[in-house]
Specification:
The chain is of the alpha/beta class and about 240 residues long. Helices cover about 30% and strands about 15% of the residues.
Length: about 240
């Protein structure tokens, strides 16, 4: 595990963007695993900047997103499909048919989960971008006695819904369920980038990266992966030696 601590958020964003871009430039048909939330926005902004400077093309690339809310369609401005189009897809040259997210409106979540897993198995992820939840979740894999390896629907913990409430008009509007790529699928990625910022994440960063490997902190399972690059701002990394 490689851990890099940056003085500024902008430095972190540039570094992460360059990592993703380098994979695509080396392998034009690369498969990228993408994340949502507040942390990746700056990273996607830097990718768009480099694309506008004609330093990368995504015409042959494929993307798989980690997760989507259940019960929210892609036209809803709080859906992750909407987020990805707003912050990345509509600004680069990737064909829409090569961008995939779990379908949160699927009638049968088990069938949708199997469909998504089959697609990822057919096109293994070269590099996966992750954020980190305050309770140690990655994707929407919440702390539990047991974790599901493949894509699955999950009931969101109250602390997760509270953390995401800032994006909604009210707490009542925050969905109670999501469909997420499983930890097993995440760990099959060739390379994983974990990007975390903010002093409020410092304790869970230390626990995930240096504590025991446990399903009660899903991100701790990243310690078992051969190639994880952890990118932290100074505040998020303040408790690491």
């Amino acid at each position: 595990m490689e851990i890099i601590i940056f003085d500024t958020q902008q430095e972190l964003d540039i570094y992460a963007a360059d990592l993703l871009i380098s994979v695509v430039n080396e392998k034009p048909d690369a498969v990228l695993g993408l994340a949502t939330g507040s942390t990746p926005i700056g990273i996607y902004d830097k990718i768009v900047e480099k694309f506008n400077e004609k330093k990368v093309s995504f015409k042959e690339a494929t993307t798989f997103n980690l997760d989507e809310y259940v019960g929210i369609g892609p036209e809803n401005d709080q859906s992750y499909a909407y987020y990805m189009n707003k912050h990345l897809f509509s600004h680069i040259d990737i064909p829409a048919a090569q961008t995939y997210l779990p379908n949160g409106m699927a009638a049968n979540m088990e069938e949708e989960s199997a469909r998504y897993d089959a697609m990822i198995q057919a096109k293994p992820i070269d590099i996966q971008l992750l954020g980190l939840g305050h309770n140690g979740h990655i994707g929407f894999n919440e702390p539990d006695d047991n974790l599901t390896g493949g894509t699955h629907s999950v009931k969101l913990k109250e602390e997760t819904r509270l953390a995401n409430a800032r994006f909604f008009a009210s707490m009542e509007e925050v969905p109670g369920y999501a469909i997420t790529m499983g930890v097993g699928s995440i760990l099959k990625s060739n390379t994983i980038i974990l990007a975390v910022r903010g002093a409020d994440k410092a304790e869970i960063v230390k626990e995930a990266l240096t504590g025991p490997i446990t399903t009660s902190v899903p991100a701790s399972l990243l310690q078992t992966h051969a190639r994880v690059i952890v990118l932290l701002d100074r505040e998020a990394g303040r408790l690491l030696g």
